[in-house]
Structures are given as structure tokens and as C-alpha cells.
């Protein structure tokens, strides 16, 4: 026995050594020899020997041509399927969107709200919103969805402070089901912009399964085996994956003639970028929403598809904004802030740090999908561009001079300026970006250095206002410019600024403008534009924050198994090719119904 | 013997108490607020952040004075409750660890044991063989000096991407549900092989070098020369030398086994293998007090058990320890 074991070991060792001693091909060779877009999954069906008795007999091996493999949403193992715990939904992306659905969808590319669970919804007067629920929707357990489910879900926010939409009840007075399919909402001074946003973000849950739950179960329960109304059902999960299986009785197939093409969606979590890149190159992932540096090269050689064929390849998902701590000197001086804005070499961030995968931001910070709210005259008059000479000139005329001859300016009162720009450690693209920010500011004479604390420390500095300058991008794609302005100019200023205005810029005029925008009906586009224009003028004059570039909606896909992916071309669908949590309602779900099997 | 064990036990209990206290303390010294970090991931409508911050601080028991938190922590430990993870809220820490640990054991136990047997065997064999010594020794040095991550990436790239023989991510095929069949077992083994090989190779180098050096040292010791002078057969001398040389290797082995739940951190990240390594990394970055505590508790228990095992093993394998105990009680 011992001898057999030893022999075996020797064999293993020799094999392993051979492996380690193999020739080391040059990186150039990778691109040539990689069998790209080859499908690697097991194709033969395996004799089914089920040991544990599953609830329904299901396949144990997923046929490749019926399965969509996605990645890039999750940052951790699946932990819950509770649609009211919003921060962990990335790990079970699809909980909202595939399983639970929202009353409306929103398509950022056409800027349209799409009635979904709701058949229609309208403001009958300034304080009353009437919603008509679609008839014929059923939960996956067969029960019909009625107005009572919607009222129940909305009223959870009234009952429990830990529900994320509870602040909506500050202006929502009541939600009443007037029939099985009609709901009337009554308001006092409604925030129309937020209301619309909530319409496509609040996931409706079945009352008959949730009403007997305790507060803790509702706000903090894991909600295993979720029962929803959506296109997919929970099938299984493990540490590194979620598997969803198509709901063959989905209401939209009957009512709207929509049917998602993949029978199964396997959402894979990779622990690092190099693994994700490897899986993309091997064709093991159909749609990757990971940020993969260098994907431009693969896209140009035709190994993967991206939304745009050329730079920036990706749609824009959110704005990277440089927050300046206006409670500290010299960031309290608009002239200094303005000089800083002119000093930053955004072109280098776009072309060097990101190798062309992103776009420089509009000075207003509004995403391209909200471009119509940009006041071009204001931008032409007050906007900033990269111009070191101009930055130097603004500094000089505001009294910033290099007194001690170290090459960096001192404040007008003669005090030394030493500043830090931060981002969390490990966010490699941002780490590169802040290096460029620091370098270009130094070129203009501002003593700025980059620093990368751990995420936790960075987060604390951000929310307690102890940083000098830092990057942040917490306003994602949205139906309204208010989402961005709510991040930039959040008020009132509190000890902990957990959700915006991290630089604590205290300007009542701006706060009033943002409030005014929040209370402008979405149908009043001219009114929204007018307020936005005033906000932009004040923002670009005072420059309390500096929008720099748009982070991309990272998406690379393969045609090997599924085709008809969204691209800029007119013969393919225009949707957001995205599986991130919160993006299923913004196009991801409809994309699934438009996919086609290859061949 | 009883006194020996009693004294050792006391030291272990004290060490455990101190180690667990430090384990509790250190995450709390980190700058930052875990609840805030958790909530900041909810990018939507963060108007509720202030309310929810208070709510969850209470839910995690972080609103009571620090000494109280410490007492609660000990009480909970003895009830087998390691708390709720912040990073993977609302999962209980014990459940998270229990799900991940089997992967670590499955990966590390064979890697550690096989590399130990193979390394010692090879090292001892090579020690007196000029040709092997000249080839194996440099290779062993290279292997043991190789960072796990680098070798891992190299293997993943060569066998996973270029040759396409092995998968590069996951514990089993993403196209399968766990079930009993040869195809599934094959898939598990295939996914296991590269991470295993990368750990095995690095460890193998270390053991082989250590054994080789020890054997040469022992063969040059006085007792070996004495035996040689007496005309003892070469095999016998080598046997004695091997028995002496193996002692430090046993210590090394048990220390390796002690950190079995967390010893493959980098490898697991490189191969996206769902063990506890990646969780520890994430727990630290997210200041998940409870998950950090839980993971390190397992490491502490592992290391202490391993040390205890060495103490016992030495009594058995090293007669000198037994003699020492007798001498003490005399």
C-alpha cells in the first residue's frame, strides 16, 4: 500500500514539475493562440442520479445552448433574496427585475417610462396619482396579483423605518385600493421626481406571503426561495453563483407576447479581474459586466462585442465627481476650486488611466442620457476645460503665490497648502486617475498628492468630512437630473453626510433650487430645464464639485451562443446590456427577451 | 505525564483567551464604521441612511458601551453564536464559515499532506545523490521561493487559457448542479486540480529542501559517524538520520495544518475558489467585525489544536521528550 502511494506521489510530482517547467510563451503569443469564443461547457447529458430530493425535478446539467452565462454584478456570495435589503442585491442580482418586478420600467436610452406591472399611471391633480394595475398577472405560486399587493408593499415603508423608501411617506398621505386593479395615492407637496424614480425601483411583493411576517423578517430576513411575479424563478445558488430558471407561466408572455430566450441564467462571481478576463477570453461568459482594462484591444480584434464599435466602447453609467471639502482651506475659496477644475488633465484620465474606455464628462456632470437638461449656453460661458495656464492665471489673480519657492503656491494669507486626493485602495482605475489628478494639479502649482486608504477608512473620511478631495460616483443612471443633484447638493448638512454633499458645501440658494427641481412634475419638461439651468449656472460659478468623467456601463459580450445583443447599430436593439442590480428595470430584462440563439 | 499535560492545557486556555480578546479588539481599532460602509452600498435613495444607520447599529449591538460589547461577545461565543455578518447581512457568521470551510479543507488537506510526504521522501532521497541534488535542489529553491499567486496565475494561464485543459474559476462547472454522477465528480476534480497543484508545488519545494538539509546535517552528526565507525549498514544509519530529521518537519506540518482554514487565501482569489480566503479579505476590507472575529476564531482554534497535537506527537515520536518528563517528576 505504502509503495503504491509513493509511486503515485512520484507520478504526481513529476507531472506537476513538468507543468511548472513548461516553456513560457511571450504575452504576444496569447492573443494569437487563444481559442477565442470557443464553448467549453460539458455538452453530453449526464445520467441523472439525484440523491437529495429536489422540490421539482430539474436538470442537473444545463445545456449550453439554453443557458446564458453572465458575470460582473456580484461582489460577494449570495446572502439574501429580500428586495427590501437593497445594498446586497448585487450579490443576488435579478432578485429585483427577474423575480420581483416593479410597476414601471425605465429606458434611459429613449428616456421613457414603460408601464409594466402597472397598465397606466397618471396625476389627476397636483396631489393625486391614480394607478391602474394590469389584469392577469399571477405570482409564481399561482395567486393573482391585485391592488392589495401594491398597497401592502408601499405601506411597508410607512410602517418600518428600515425600509429604504420610508422617507417617501413624508409626502405620501395614503395609498388606497379602490378596486382590485385601481389604486389612488394621495399626497401633500409630492416630490414628483423621486416618485417617478420609485415607480421603477420599488419591487412589489405578494401580500399573502408577506403579511404574516414580523418586522425583522421583512426588513432583515434572507427570504430564501423567493416567490415573485417575474420572468425567472430562483433555482439554486452556491458561494460563487446564482442560477435562475425561466418562469414558463410569466404573465408578460401571455399579455405582451414577450418571452426571454435563455431557459437559464447562471450569474457567476469571480474573485478577481484576471479570472473574469480569462473566462471572457475562453468564451465561458456570454455577457460580462466586469470592468476589464484592455478590453478595447479585444473588441477591436473582434473577440468580444461592445455597445460602441469604437471609443468609448461602453455606454456611460455614472459620473465620477471630484468632491472638494469646502469646510477646509483653501477649498472654501471658489477661485481655488475653479483653478483646480482647469488644472485637471481629464484627457489623460480617459486615454491613459482608462485606455479610452470612458468619456470625459460634461462640466455639468449630467450623463449623456440626460443631455437635454444641459444648458449649453451656461456651459459655454462658465464651463471648464484642461488648461494649466488658465489655472495658474486664476490662482495668481486670486492671490495664490509661491512664497517659499518650492514650486507650489501658498494661500493668500501666506499659509502653506498641502492637500490629498483619495480613493479606496484596490480600485485600480481610480487609483490611476487620482495619480493623474495630483500630477496635473502639481503642474499648475497646487501641492496635491494622491492617497489610497482602505475602503472602510475612505468611507468614514467621506461621510464625516475629514478628507480634502475625493472621488465619488454614487448617482447612477436615472430618469431625472435630480438624482445627480441630490447627490451633489444633499441637505441639510449633518454630522454624518452618508449620501451626498460630502464636501459639505453650504449654499441655501442651491438647496432651494434642488428642492424646487424635486417638486417639479416630470411632465413639465420646460420647468425642469429652467431649474436645471439655474443649478448649472450656480454650480459652475462656485465649482463646489468637479465632474470629471463618466464611468462606463461595462459590458462585453460574445456571439457564440446568443446573438442580437444591443449595439449602437440600428439593426440591433438599443437597451442597456446590463445585469447589475437596478439595471434589469432599465433595459436588462427586455434585452433578455430580444436575445436570439446563435444559428 | 498528567502534570505535563495539565500545564500545557493551562497555557493553551490562557493563550486562547488572549488570542480571542485580541481578535475581538483589532477590528475595532480599524478606522471606519461597518454599518456606514454597508449602507453606502445602497446607492438608491439614501435619504433613509440616517434612520437606517441607527437601526442597524442597534441590530448589530454596536450601540452599547464597548465593555458591554466585549462581555456580550464572550457570552455569545459560549452559546456558539458568532453574530451576524455585516458584509453578508443577514447571514449568520457561523453559517458562512461552515459553507466555506469544506472547500478549504478539500483543497489544503491533500496539498499539505501530499506535499509533506512527497517533499520529505524526495529530500531524503536527494540528499545523498549527487545528480538529484544538483537538479532537485535548485528546482526546490525556485519552487519554495515562488509566490503562490504568481505560480497560480501562471498555471491558470497556461493550462486554463492557452491549453484549455483545466477550468480557471469555480469549485465545479458553472453548468452543473451538485449531484452524484461521474461527470460531476470529474468536474469537481478538474476544478480542484490547478489550485491544488499550485499549493502543492510551492510546499513541495519547501519540504524537500528542508529534509535534504536536515538529512545532510544528521548524517554528519557524531552518532552517525560513530555508527559508521562501528560498521553499521548504510541503511541503518540513514534510518536513524531520517528519524531525527523528520522531527522539525512534523512541527512544520502541524503548523501548516493549523491554518488549514485560511492558508490558501491568495490561491483562492487567483482561482476564484469559494473557500474562506476570499471572505477574510473582504471581511477585513469591509470591517465586518463579526466575520473577521469568526474567521480568526477558527484560525486560533486550528493553530492551538495543531500545537497541542505536536505536543502529544512529540511524546510519541521523540523519546527524549518522554525522558525529560520522567526526569522532571523524579
What can be said about this structure in brief?
The complex is a heterodimer of chains A (599) and B (330). Chain A is an alpha+beta fold.
Please outline the helices and strands:
The complex is a heterodimer of chains A (599) and B (330).
Chain A: H1 2-21, H2 27-33, E1 67-71, E2 101-102, E3 104-107, E4 112-115, E5 118-125, E6 128-133, H3 147-159, E7 172-177, E8 182-187, H4 192-199, E9 203-204, H5 207-210, H6 215-220, E10 232-238, E11 241-246, H7 251-255, E12 264-268, H8 273-281, E13 287-288, H9 295-300, E14 316-324, H10 334-343, H11 346-353, E15 359-360, H12 376-382, H13 388-397, E16 419-422, H14 428-443, E17 448-451, H15 455-464, E18 469-472, H16 482-488, H17 508-518, H18 525-542, E19 545-552, E20 556-557, E21 562-563, H19 584-594, E22 596-597
Parallel strand pairs in A: 1-12, 1-13, 16-17, 16-18
Antiparallel strand pairs in A: 2-9, 3-4, 5-6, 6-8, 7-8, 10-11, 11-12, 13-20, 14-18, 14-19, 15-19, 21-22
Helix pairs in contact in A: 10-13, 11-14, 17-18
Chain B: H1 2-29, H2 34-39, H3 49-59, H4 66-78, H5 93-127, H6 130-145, H7 148-162, H8 182-219, H9 222-230, H10 234-258, H11 265-270, H12 276-285, H13 289-317, H14 319-329
Helix pairs in contact in B: 1-13, 5-6, 5-8, 5-10, 6-8, 7-8, 8-10, 10-13, 12-13, 13-14
Would you give an account of this structure?
The complex is a heterodimer of chains A (about 600) and B (about 325). Chain A is α+β, with helices and mostly antiparallel strands and about 600 residues long. Chain A is built from 19 helices and 22 strands. Chain A has three domains: about 190 residues, D-Maltodextrin-Binding Protein, domain 2 (3-Layer(aba) Sandwich), CATH 3.40.190.10; about 110 residues, Dipeptide-binding Protein, Domain 1 (Dipeptide-binding Protein, domain 1, Alpha-Beta Complex); about 240 residues, Dipeptide-binding Protein, domain 3 (Roll). Chain A has a six-stranded mixed β-sheet, with no helix packed on it. The longest helix of chain A is centred in the first third of the chain and has 20 residues. The N terminus of chain A is likely disordered. Chain B is an all-alpha fold and about 325 residues long. Chain B has one domain: MetI-like (MetI-like fold). Chain B contains 14 helices and no strands. In chain B, helix 1 packs antiparallel against helix 13, helix 5 packs antiparallel against helix 6 and helix 6 crosses helix 8. Chain B is globular. Classes of the chains: A alpha+beta (about 600), B mainly alpha (about 325).
Amino acid at each position: 500500500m505504502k509503495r503504491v502511494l509513493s509511486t503515485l506521489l512520484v507520478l504526481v510530482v513529476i507531472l506537476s514539475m513538468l507543468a511548472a517547467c513548461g516553456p513560457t510563451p511571450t504575452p504576444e503569443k496569447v492573443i494569437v493562440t487563444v481559442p477565442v469564443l470557443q464553448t467549453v461547457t460539458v455538452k453530453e447529458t449526464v445520467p441523472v442520479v439525484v440523491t437529495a430530493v429536489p422540490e421539482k425535478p430539474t436538470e442537473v446539467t444545463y445545456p449550453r445552448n439554453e443557458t446564458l452565462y453572465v458575470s460582473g454584478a456580484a461582489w460577494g456570495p449570495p446572502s439574501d433574496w429580500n428586495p427590501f435589503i437593497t445594498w446586497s442585491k448585487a450579490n443576488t442580482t435579478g432578485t429585483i427585475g427577474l423575480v420581483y418586478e416593479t410597476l414601471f420600467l425605465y429606458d434611459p436610452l429613449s428616456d421613457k417610462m414603460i408601464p409594466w406591472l402597472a397598465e397606466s399611471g397618471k396625476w389627476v391633480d397636483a396631489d393625486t396619482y391614480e394607478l391602474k394595475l394590469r389584469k392577469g398577472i399571477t405570482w409564481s405560486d399561482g395567486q393573482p396579483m391585485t391592488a392589495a399587493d401594491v398597497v401592502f408593499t408601499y405601506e411597508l415603508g410607512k410602517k418600518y423605518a428600515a425600509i429604504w423608501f420610508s422617507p417617501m411617506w413624508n409626502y405620501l398621505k395614503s395609498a388606497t385600493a379602490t378596486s382590485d386593479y385601481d389604486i389612488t395615492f394621495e399626497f401633500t407637496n409630492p416630490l414628483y421626481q423621486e416618485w417617478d424614480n420609485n415607480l421603477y425601483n420599488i419591487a412589489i411583493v405578494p401580500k399573502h406571503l408577506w403579511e404574516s411576517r414580523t418586522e425583522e423578517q421583512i426588513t432583515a430576513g434572507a427570504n430564501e426561495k423567493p416567490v415573485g411575479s417575474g420572468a425567472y424563478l430562483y433555482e439554486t445558488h452556491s458561494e460563487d453563483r446564482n442560477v435562475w430558471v425561466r418562469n414558463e407561466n410569466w404573465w408578460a408572455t401571455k399579455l405582451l407576447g414577450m418571452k426571454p430566450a435563455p431557459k437559464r441564467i447562471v450569474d457567476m462571481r469571480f474573485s478577481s479581474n484576471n479570472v473574469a478576463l480569462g473566462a471572457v477570453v475562453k468564451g465561458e461568459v456570454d455577457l460580462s459586466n466586469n470592468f476589464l482594462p484592455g478590453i478595447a484591444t479585444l473588441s477591436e480584434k473582434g473577440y468580444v462585442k461592445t455597445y460602441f464599435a469604437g471609443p468609448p466602447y461602453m455606454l456611460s453609467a455614472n459620473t465620477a465627481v471630484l468632491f472638494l471639502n469646502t469646510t477646509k482651506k483653501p477649498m472654501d475659496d471658489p477661485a481655488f476650486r475653479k483653478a483646480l477644475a482647469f488644472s485637471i488633465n481629464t484627457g489623460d484620465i480617459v486615454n491613459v488611466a482608462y485606455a479610452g474606455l470612458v468619456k470625459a464628462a460634461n462640466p455639468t456632470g449630467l450623463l449623456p442620457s440626460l443631455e437635454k437638461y444641459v444648458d449649453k449656453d451656461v456651459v459655454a460661458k462658465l464651463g471648464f476645460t484642461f488648461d494649466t495656464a488658465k489655472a495658474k492665471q486664476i490662482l495668481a489673480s486670486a492671490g495664490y503665490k509661491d512664497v517659499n519657492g518650492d514650486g507650489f503656491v501658498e494661500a493668500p494669507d501666506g499659509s502653506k497648502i498641502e492637500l490629498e486626493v483619495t480613493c479606496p485602495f484596490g480600485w485600480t482605475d481610480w487609483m490611476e486617475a487620482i495619480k493623474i489628478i495630483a500630477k496635473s494639479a502639481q503642474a499648475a502649482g497646487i501641492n496635491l498628492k494622491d492617497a489610497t486608504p482602505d475602503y472602510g477608512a475612505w468611507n468614514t473620511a467621506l461621510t464625516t468630512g475629514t478628507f480634502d478631495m475625493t472621488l465619488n460616483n454614487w448617482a447612477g443612471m436615472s430618469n431625472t437630473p435630480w438624482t445627480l443633484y441630490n447627490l451633489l447638493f444633499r441637505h441639510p448638512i449633518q454630522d454624518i453626510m452618508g449620501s451626498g454633499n460630502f464636501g459639505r458645501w453650504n449654499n441655501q440658494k442651491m438647496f432651494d433650487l434642488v428642492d424646487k427641481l424635486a417638486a417639479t412634475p416630470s411632465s413639465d419638461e420646460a420647468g425642469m430645464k429652467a431649474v436645471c439651468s439655474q443649478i448649472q449656472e450656480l454650480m459652475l460659478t462656485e465649482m463646489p464639485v468637479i465632474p470629471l468623467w463618466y464611468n462606463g456601463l461595462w459590458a462585453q459580450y460574445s456571439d457564440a451562443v446568443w446573438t442580437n445583443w444591443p449595439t449602437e447599430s440600428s439593426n440591433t436593439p438599443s437597451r442597456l446590456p446590463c445585469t447589475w442590480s437596478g439595471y434589469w428595470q432599465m433595459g436588462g430584462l427586455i434585452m433578455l427577451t430580444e436575445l436570439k440563439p446563435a444559428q | 505525564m498528567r502534570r505535563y499535560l495539565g500545564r500545557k492545557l493551562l497555557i493553551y486556555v490562557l493563550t486562547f483567551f488572549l488570542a480571542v480578546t485580541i481578535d475581538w479588539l483589532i477590528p475595532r481599532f480599524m478606522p471606519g464604521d461597518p454599518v456606514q460602509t454597508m449602507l453606502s452600498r445602497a446607492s438608491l435613495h439614501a435619504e433613509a441612511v440616517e434612520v437606517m444607520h441607527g437601526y442597524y447599529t442597534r441590530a448589530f449591538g454596536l450601540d452599547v458601551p464597548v465593555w458591554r460589547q466585549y462581555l456580550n461577545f464572550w457570552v455569545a461565543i459560549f452559546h456558539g453564536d458568532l453574530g451576524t455578518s455585516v458584509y453578508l447581512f443577514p447571514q449568520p457568521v457561523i453559517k458562512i464559515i461552515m459553507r466555506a470551510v469544506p472547500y478549504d479543507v478539500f483543497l489544503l488537506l491533500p496539498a499539505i499532506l501530499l506535499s509533506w510526504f512527497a517533499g520529505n521522501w524526495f529530500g531524503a532521497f536527494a540528499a545523498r545523490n549527487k545528480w538529484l541534488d544538483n537538479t532537485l535542489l535548485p528546482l526546490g529553491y525556485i519552487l519554495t521561493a515562488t509566490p503562490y499567486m504568481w505560480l497560480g496565475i501562471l498555471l491558470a494561464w497556461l493550462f486554463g487559457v492557452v491549453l484549455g485543459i483545466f477550468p480557471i474559476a469555480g469549485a465545479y462547472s458553472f453548468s452543473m448542479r451538485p449531484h452524484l454522477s461521474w461527470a460531476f465528480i470529474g468536474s469537481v476534480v478538474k476544478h480542484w486540480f490547478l489550485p491544488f497543484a499550485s499549493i502543492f508545488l510551492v510546499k513541495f519545494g519547501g519540504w524537500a529542501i528542508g529534509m535534504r538539509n536536515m538529512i545532510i546535517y544528521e548524517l554528519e552528526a557524531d552518532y552517525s559517524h560513530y555508527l559508521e565507525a562501528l560498521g553499521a549498514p548504510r541503511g541503518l544509519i540513514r534510518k536513524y538520520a531520517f528519524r531525527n530529521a523528520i522531527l522539525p518537519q512534523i512541527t512544520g506540518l502541524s503548523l501548516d495544518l493549523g491554518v488549514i482554514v485560511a492558508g490558501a487565501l491568495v490561491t483562492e482569489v487567483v482561482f476564484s475558489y469559494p473557500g474562506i480566503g476570499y471572505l477574510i479579505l473582504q471581511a477585513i476590507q469591509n470591517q465586518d467585525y463579526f466575520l473577521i472575529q469568526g474567521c480568526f476564531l477558527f484560525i486560533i482554534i486550528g493553530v492551538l489544536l495543531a500545537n497541542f497535537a505536536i505536543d502529544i506527537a512529540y511524546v510519541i515520536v521523540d523519546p527524549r521528550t518522554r525522558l525529560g518528563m520522567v526526569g522532571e517528576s523524579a
